[in-house]
Structure formats: structure tokens, C-alpha cells
Amino acid sequence: MTELTELVGSWMRRQRWYSTKAVEPRLRLLGSFELERAPESADDGSRIVTHFFCDDAPRSPRVYQVPLVARVQRDGEPAGYVGEAGGRHLYDGPAEEAYVAALVALMTGAGDADGEHARATGHTLGGRIPVHSSRRLSAEQSNTSIVAEIADGVLSLVKVFRVVQDGENPDISTLAALTAGGSERTPALLGWLSGSWPAADGGRATGELALMQDFVPGAEDGWELAVSAAERGEDFTDRAYALGAGTAELHRLMAGVLPTRPAGADDVRAALDGMFRRLTITTTEVPEVEQLRAAIATVYEAAAAAPLPVLQRIHGDLHLGQVLYSPDRGWQFIDFEGEPLRPLAERALPDATMRDVAGMLRSFDYVSGSLAQREPPVDAREWAAAAREAYLEGYASVAGDVLHEFADLLTAFELDKAVYEITYEARHRPSWIPIPRAAVERLLDDAQGIAPREAGASSR
Ligand SMILES: Nc1ncnc2c1ncn2[C@@H]1O[C@H](COP(=O)(O)OP(=O)(O)O)[C@@H](O)[C@H]1O
Ligand SMILES: O=P(O)(O)O[C@H]1O[C@H](CO)[C@@H](O[C@H]2O[C@H](CO)[C@@H](O)[C@H](O)[C@H]2O)[C@H](O)[C@H]1O
């Protein structure tokens, strides 16, 4: 193992975006390309290189994008310091203005970068944009986001994907279609970077590496707004109603600009396979869930046997952390990447809108679940029930009665999401496992009317 690979491996393990925390990374360098310094930034002799590392430690290998700025001189000890390798001091690219300026120049200048076994191409919707300054957001999630100040003090949001995959990333294809369709529920896409690199198992992979979008000014994060309202016992029903109506508007917009199709037998099979795959991952990682498998299977199969709605592009991982409340624009929806633990090939496929609704319903439950873990605990169960009802009413005010019509499907998706969340929490925040775990039991109890638990013995 080279010095660089070893250094990146030990640093990566501590990053929020490293997606399999239970294992020690086993990295292999697949390829790299060098970014040219943006014309307006000073040349201090450093190099800006994006590396692709394959991590062979998890069951299925994952490829990470790791952009680094390499300097001869050590420049203080900022948060982005990675360490020293090959006689250079390495810094996390997104934390460095030079990297962000070079990345934006490549994206919005529709340029190319060629390197060792890897390359990248920029795509722009608005032409070249120079960057004045930039700041990596500390609340990192699955990816790394940066606020960049562009010409005349306007801000934009740059997102660097960390786990990169072969295929269409819906974060870009959805936002590109919505931007072209004039959506007012989403920030406008300004540009993106696609690339190619050696695939983990041989051959080549092609996918998206970064995007740049309009920054929603003065926006508040939906999760923080909801938690602070709930802990103070403040009414959230107007906001929840508007969020429900906004979700239905978003769905209508997406159905207008991206393909729709009636659900067929193959879709039902694929949806069930996906749900059972997630269930198996969860029962493998959190074995106590195995005892609920039969009851869960009964709910899934009841939904598969019921009529299904027309399928369309959906958000795919909707929760309160994916919405921003803007005083000027109302609720804005972000992060169309879909569930990070789901295979990319599935994420852009037409799906049922009830999956998104279920995601947001789970999120209201998370608000109360997380407050119940406070010391002293806050009881926000009534708050969450009222938010849930208002959200459903808001949705129906735009979309009509569809949620009643497909109620079994909505329940199955809530359960599927809670099962997924157990794995997500096991990997990232084990102390929060009880939140989705309790939800699974509650949903199964509520579902007893539509699907008797005893009848649930499934062949899967
Ligand atoms: N267009 C935007 N305007 C303002 N803030 C944004 C915008 N997009 C994202 N953010 C902020 O960045 C955070 C991370 O963005 P997100 O797309 O959810 O990333 P991830 O894929 O890592 O989950 C969000 O929670 C939000 O606070
Ligand atoms: O925002 P991401 O795309 O990274 O989504 C992942 O992380 C989310 C956590 O930040 C996770 O959401 C779960 O926790 C939320 C509270 O932090 C809660 O509101 C959601 O309902 C719950 O699912 C999401 O599932 C995961 O894909």
C-alpha cells in the first residue's frame, strides 16, 4: 500500500461520508485527474488532484471520490488537513478555495480534465461562473456541500459526491429536468461534472462527480425548524400543510417533465425485491429484526396485491432534512440523489409518489423520537401526529384522494423506510436505532387490520 493510500484510508474512516463505519477501509487507488487552477486564482505551486479509491472492505466494494490539494509548505492546521504523503501536505479539496474555484471553472466552463485512468467533463446550463470565495458546510451528510460566493455577492451551492457510481445520478437528471421546466419548488441547476474511472471489478464506470445549484437565500433547514417547533410545543400544522401541498406540486411538476408509466407486474416484482433486499440487509446487520420478518412480509405482499398508481420520477429520499423553508420561495426541495444505500440503477426508475409521502411521515416520527431521547425527554407525540395529519391534508389539497386510494402501499412504504432506517442508523448513529425499531413495531400493530400477522409466513 502506498503512503497516500494509507493516509487517505485512516483519514476517510473519520469522515461523516465514509459509509461503512463498522469496517476498516481497505483502499486501492483506481485513477486520478488533475484540475487546472481557475484563471482568477493565485498560483502558489500547489496541485489539485481528484483521486478515485476503491474500498474493498464492505461486502460490495465502493468507489470514493477524494479531491485533495497538495502543498509543499504546510499551511497551518485547518479542519481540512489530511496529513503528509510523498513529501506534500494534503488538504481536503472541498475545504480549499483553490479546489472549489477550479471545480466550478471546469463545470461552468464546460472544460475537460484528463489524467491517469480517469477523466472529467464539465456541463453548464448558464455559462462560466467565477468564484470569489467558498466555505465547506460543516453539517456534512452523505456528500460534501460547499457554499461558493459567485459574482456580485450571489451565493451558490456546490456538492461533491463522495461515493461515485456508474450510471445516471437522479440528483442531476431530476434537477436538470425541473430547472428546464421552470420549477419554483427547487433550486436551479447551474452546472455539473461527469467523469469516468476504472470500475471496481474491471472495465470502466461513468457517472456524475459534482453539481452546482442556486443557493436558496435565508433558508432554514426543515429538520431544524421542525425540531425547534416541537421542543417548544409550537404549532407546526400550517407549515406541515404547506409542505404537503408543496410535495404534491413537486410530484405534479416531475410527472410533467420526466417519463411516467402505468405499473406492470415487473414493477411490482422489482419493488418487492427491493423491499425484501433492504429487509435482509437490516436483519443481517441488526439480527433482532429477524423475528418481525414474517409480519413485515405480510404487509409488503398485501400492498403488492392491491392496485398501484401510475409511476413517475419521485424525490426518492424525502425527509425533513431534504427541505428548506425560504421566506421568499416557501418550501424548497433539495437532494434528489435518492437513498444513498440503494443501488443507483434503481434510483432514477419511475416509482410511486407514496414512497416520498411515507418518507416525510417517517420524518415527523423522527422529530418526536429524537426528542424522546433528550435529557430530560420531551414528549412530542401529539405534535408529530398533528403535523402528520396536516401534511396529508396539504398533499390531498393538490393531489386529491390518492393517498386513501393507495393506503396499503403508503403503509408498506412507511414500513420499508423504517426498515431501511434501522440499517442507516446501525451504520451511522447506533443510539438512534430505537426510533425506527419502535416505528416498525407500531406500523405492524396498526397494519394488523389489513394484514393479519399470523398469516405472514412468507417464502422469502
Ligand atoms: N440550494 C441550496 N440552498 C441552500 N442550502 C442548501 C442548498 N442545497 C443544500 N443546502 C444545504 O446543504 C445541506 C446538504 O445538502 P444535501 O443536498 O442534502 O446533501 P447530501 O447529499 O450530502 O445529503 C442541506 O441540509 C442544506 O442545509
Ligand atoms: O440526507 P441524506 O441523503 O444523507 O439521507 C440519509 O441520512 C438521513 C439522516 O440525516 C436519513 O434520515 C433519517 O434521519 C432524519 C433525521 O436526521 C429523519 O428526518 C428521517 O426521517 C430519517 O429517515 C435518511 O434516511 C438517509 O437516507
Q: Could you give the order of strands across the largest sheet?
A: 6-7-12-13-10-9-8
Poorly predicted runs are 451-459
Distance between the termini: 42 Å
Find the count of extended strands (DSSP E, 2+ residues).
16
- Sheet with most strands: 7 strands, antiparallel
Give the domain tally: 2
Question: Order of helices and strands, N to C?
Answer: HEEEEEHEEEEEEHEEEHHHHEEHHHHHH
Mean pLDDT: 93
Q: Determine the CATH topology of the largest domain.
A: Aminoglycoside 3'-phosphotransferase, Chain: A, domain 2
Number of helices: 13
Determine the strand fraction and express it as a percent band: 15-25%
Structural class: alpha+beta
- Our Rg estimate from Cα atoms comes to 22 Å
Question: What is the 3D shape?
Answer: globular
CATH architecture of the largest domain: Alpha-Beta Complex
Q: What is the CATH top level name of the largest domain?
A: Alpha Beta
- What is the name of the CATH superfamily of the largest domain? Aminoglycoside phosphotransferase (APH), C-terminal lobe
The small molecules bound here are: adenosine-5'-diphosphate, the ligand O=P(O)(O)O[C@H]1O[C@H](CO)[C@@H](O[C@H]2O[C@H](CO)[C@@H](O)[C@H](O)[C@H]2O)[C@H](O)[C@H]1O
Helix content range? 25-40%
Description:
With 460 residues, the chain is an alpha+beta fold. It has 2 domains: 3-214, no CATH class; 220-456, Alpha-Beta Complex (Aminoglycoside 3'-phosphotransferase, Chain: A, domain 2), CATH 3.90.1200.10. It is built from 13 helices and 16 strands. The protein has helices at residues 3-12, 97-108, 170-180, 222-231, 237-257, 265-285, 293-305, 344-347, 354-372, 381-399, 402-405, 407-428, 434-446; strands at residues 27-35, 47-55, 62-71, 81-85, 88-92, 112-116, 119-124, 131-136, 144-150, 154-160, 163-164, 189-198, 204-214, 220-221, 323-326, 330-333. Strands 6-7-12-13-10-9-8 form a 7-stranded antiparallel β-sheet. Strands 1, 2, 3, 4, 5 and 11 form a 6-stranded antiparallel β-sheet that branches. A hairpin with a 6-residue loop joins strand 2 and strand 3. Helix 7 (293-305) runs antiparallel to helix 12, helix 9 runs antiparallel to helix 10 (381-399) and helix 9 packs across helix 12. The longest helix has 22 residues, at 407-428. The radius of gyration is 22 Å and the shape is globular. Residues 451-459 have low confidence and may be disordered. The structure holds adenosine-5'-diphosphate and ligand LMANGFYV.
